[in-house]
Amino acid sequence: MQHQGKSKRERRGHVLPQAPLISLDQPGRLLTRHVLALSGWSHSKLYKKLKEASFPAPEKDGRVNYWTTDTVRAALGLSGVTP
After folding, report:
1. E strand or H helix at 50, and its extent?
2. pLDDT at 81 (0 to 100)
3. I want to staple 33 with a disulfide (CB 3.0 to 4.6 A). Which of 18, 21, 29, 70 is the partner?
4. What is the pTM of this model?
5. Are 56 and 67 a contacting pair, CB within 8 Å?
6. Residue 76 in contact with residue 20, Cβ under 8 Å?
7. By the 8 A CB rule, do 16 and 31 touch?
């Protein structure tokens, strides 16, 4: 996958927010980009909250971080939200 306009050094590994394709009422996994979209936080703010333990740590599947929909819904105080 080729990123347009930015070198590898400029990207720094940060992901851009992207709305999840599933409802938070369904069981499923949410990636970092989905959590950013739902919370409205920047990548830096999310990882600051993880470091402070004010947001639950992600689970891992190999190298991929993810949160379950139940975990994110509870942590953000959301209920019955459909993206």
Report:
1. helix 43-52
2. 52
3. 18
4. 0.79
5. yes
6. no
7. no
What gap in Å lies between CA 73 and CA 71, rounded to an integer?
6
- Chain centroid to CA 16: 9
Sequence-distant (6+) residues with CB within 8 A of 18 are 33, 34, 36, 37
For 44-71, what is each residue's pLDDT tens digit? 999 999 999 999 999 999 999 999 999 9
Determine which helix (DSSP H) or strand (DSSP E) holds 35, and give its type and residue range: helix 32-39
Tell me what the mean pLDDT of segment 20-39 comes to.
Answer: 94
For the sheet with 64-68, list strands across it. 29-30, 64-68, 59-61
